[in-house]
Every structure is written in structure tokens, then in C-alpha cells.
Write a structure and sequence with these properties.
By secondary structure, this protein is an all-alpha fold. It contains 16 helices and no strands. It is 82% helix and 0% strand.
């Protein structure tokens, strides 16, 4: 999983907009980050307003929550298909189409009158969600010189962490203030602002007329290194979400903290996550070493949390957890590029598929663990899966 400078150099000579001035290039990357912020907020906002959606549309909270599950499954499963459909389209045009779908989708969500309409809207927006994860990093690295590609990936992905720390709580608060429909209407306006930034700042990026454009998912899967990266991704994401999905029950029933401070632990996780994302952008180009370290740290933290630990220590460990995990998507995406430098988007679409399916798998594994063994079990399960990822990362490093 070590970098292949010759392959990157050849590809970047053909794909990078070298005429772009540094200030303009980083402004364009920031515009992508704003789009990612809006996309992530769209994905997560229903979680904060589920009771209101449930009451308004006349369905149970659990049923309303299926709109979140449907969205994630569609995003993951259809990412490779949507990427292949759009492979010949200018990347700037693709990003603009995606943002337009989110603007219209959020506006339509604010206007739905039935649960069936909500599911239909979330299905369509979910397709666009999977597509943006397939293209955003590949677009970001075409805007900057090759030595800065990891940093560009980190900046574009920073919208995820910022949305989790600031966007979702703000959307939840707005939902209490102006209603869940008003929150989605405001999100539609914010997404429109992101679209305007993309229009102004992102240059034309013609689709690559190369082996990258012709590469299929089957071609990518023939590469042993990409299969190894996907294995690491699956293990890490399943492990993280087996634990994180049930962090509140763990804190309440396993650690014994009071319900009024659970939010504080989540804020610590989120702020540390922003730091972890930024840290990933400044690591050495030999990102495979950092990937191995990050996965190992995550496995160790979850293992310690699965043992009896006092509340102050848990708070510190939750911070390390957020720091280590939030660096991993950037490092994993970079590993995908390194493993398949000539077919970035096809490889990334597979990465998106594995990532999203693993989120659902992790939540399911954690649910079984907590129901059968109690509130600490998800942490132990998470540690086990992440340990598997660490072993795979060591093997990838040696290769």
C-alpha cells in the first residue's frame, strides 16, 4: 500500500489542472468541502428530528428511522452504478448536478405530505449522495499538485466532521425552533450557497479519456492491493459503528454517567474528530504507515473501553477514539488511490459501497451484542473487528 510516485506522476500529468493558481485551487477545494458539509447534514439531519417527522407523518419513530437506513443503503449500493453512468461527463458538471439534486431534494423533503413521498425523495437524494463520495476526492486531487493530494482530500472531507459537530446539532436546534420542515428548507438554502461556490470556484474538469474512464468495478477488483484496502475498510467501519452506534447506552449502562452529560461526550468525540481529519492532511506521503497506526490505536481504545473504566478516563478515551477514527477515511481514501492510481473513481465507488454497507453491518452487529451480552459488548465487538483491520493493515504495509 506504499505510494507509487511514477503512477501518480503519469496520471497527474494528464489529469491535474496545472494552470490553476494555488489560491484558486484551494478555494475550489474549500467549495467542495462546503458541498460535503451540506451533503452530510442532509444525511444526518433526520436523526435529530425523527420524533417530529414521526408525529407529522403519522408513523412510528422506528418506521421514520427507516428513511435514514434506506438512504445509506441506496448511497452505497448504487454508487458504482452512478459513477459508471457519469464517467464521460465533466466532473464540474457532475458536482453541480449532485448539488442541484440536494437543493431540490431538501426543498421537496420540507414539502412532503406522506411517508411514501419522504421515502421516494430520500431514495433519489441517496443516489446523488453515493455519487458525490465516489467523485469528490478524485476531483479534489486534480485541483492541486501531487504532493498536496492527501491534504486536499482531508480538506474536502473536513465537511463531514464539521457537519457532525456543528451542522447536525444546529439542524436539530432549528427543527425545535421552526419545525423539521423549516430545518430542511434552511438546509436547501445552505446547499444552494454551496452550489453557488462550486459554480464560481470550481474549474472545468473534463472526464479522463484514459484507462481510468474505461475501468470497471471488475477491473478494479482484480487488483490484490485494492481488495486488501477494502478489507481494512470493512473491518474498521464495522468495528467503529458496532461501538459508536451504541455509545449512549454504553455511557449510561456500562459507565454509569448521567443522561445530561452524554451530549458532552459526543461533543468531545466530534471536536477530536475535526482534529483527526486535519491531522490526516498533514501526515507523511507514506500514508500506509499512518493508516496502520490509526487502525491499531482505534482497536486499542475500544479494547480498553470494553473493560471497567472510570468516567474521567472514558472521556479522554472517547476523545482519542474520535481523533483516530476521523483520520481513517482520509487515509483509507488515499490508500484507495495508491492501490488503483489509474482508475480512481471506479475504485472509490467500490470503497463507498463497502463503507456504507459496513456502517449498516456494524450497527447490526452492535445491536446483537448489546441485546445478548449487555451495554459493554459493542465495544468488545468493535475492538475485535478493528484488530482484524490492524492485522490486514500490517500485511498491506509489508506488501
Amino acid at each position: 500500500m506504499t505510494d507509487n510516485p511514477a503512477a501518480w506522476r503519469d496520471l497527474d500529468n494528464r489529469s491535474t489542472n496545472t494552470a490553476l493558481r494555488p489560491v484558486r485551487a484551494w478555494a475550489a477545494v474549500t467549495a467542495l468541502a462546503l458541498a460535503v458539509f451540506a451533503v452530510t447534514a442532509t444525511e444526518m439531519l433526520p436523526i435529530g428530528v425523527l420524533p417530529a417527522i414521526s408525529d407529522d407523518l403519522g408513523v412510528g419513530v422506528g418506521v421514520a428511522g427507516l428513511s435514514v437506513s434506506l438512504y445509506g443503503i441506496v448511497a452505497g449500493v448504487l454508487a458504482p452504478v452512478a459513477t459508471r453512468w457519469t464517467r464521460a461527463v465533466d466532473r464540474r458538471t457532475v458536482v453541480l448536478i449532485i448539488v442541484a439534486v440536494f437543493v431540490l431534494g431538501n426543498a421537496a423533503t420540507a414539502l412532503v405530505t406522506s411517508y411514501a413521498q419522504l421515502l421516494a425523495v430520500r431514495f433519489v437524494v441517496g443516489i446523488a449522495h453515493g455519487l458525490i463520495w465516489s467523485v469528490v476526492a478524485a476531483v479534489a486531487v486534480r485541483l492541486v499538485p501531487p504532493p498536496q493530494r492527501v491534504r486536499a482530500t482531508a480538506v474536502s472531507f473536513s465537511g463531514i466532521s464539521l457537519a457532525l459537530v456543528f451542522g447536525v446539532p444546529a439542524g436539530t436546534w432549528m427543527g425545535e425552533w421552526v419545525g423539521w420542515r423549516g430545518a430542511f428548507a434552511a438546509l436547501a438554502a445552505l446547499t444552494a450557497v454551496a452550489g453557488a461556490a462550486v459554480v464560481v470556484l470550481l474549474p472545468a474538469l473534463p472526464a479522463l479519456r484514459s484507462a481510468q474512464a474505461a475501468s470497471s468495478v471488475r477491473d478494479v477488483l482484480r487488483r490484490s492491493r485494492i481488495r486488501l484496502v477494502l478489507l481494512i475498510t470493512a473491518a474498521v467501519v464495522v468495528g467503529n459503528y458496532a461501538a459508536y452506534t451504541y455509545i449512549a447506552p454504553y455511557l449510561l449502562g456500562g459507565v454509569g454517567v448521567s443522561s445530561d452529560v452524554v451530549g458532552g461526550y459526543l461533543v468531545v468525540y466530534g471536536i477530536a474528530g475535526v482534529a483527526g481529519n486535519a491531522l490526516a492532511g498533514f501526515v507523511s506521503a507514506r500514508s500506509s504507515m499512518m493508516l496502520m497506526v490509526g487502525v491499531a490505536v482505534l482497536a486499542a481504545v475500544l479494547l480498553v473501553l470494553s473493560a471497567p473504566v472510570g468516567a474521567p478516563s472514558v472521556l479522554a478515551l472517547v476523545g482519542v477514539w474520535g481523533l483516530s477514527y476521523s483520520a481513517l477515511p482520509v487515509l483509507l481514501q488515499t490508500a484507495v488511490f495508491d492501490a488503483a492510481p489509474a482508475c480512481r473513481e471506479a475504485a472509490t465507488s467500490l470503497y463507498v459501497l463497502v463503507f456504507n454497507v459496513s456502517i449498516a453491518g456494524g450497527a447490526l452487529a452492535g445491536a446483537v451484542g448489546i441485546d445478548v451480552l449487555g451495554p459493554i459488548a459493542p465495544m468488545a465487538l468493535g475492538a475485535g473487528f478493528c484488530a482484524l483491520g490492524a492485522v490486514a493493515a500490517v500485511g498491506a504495509r509489508r506488501s
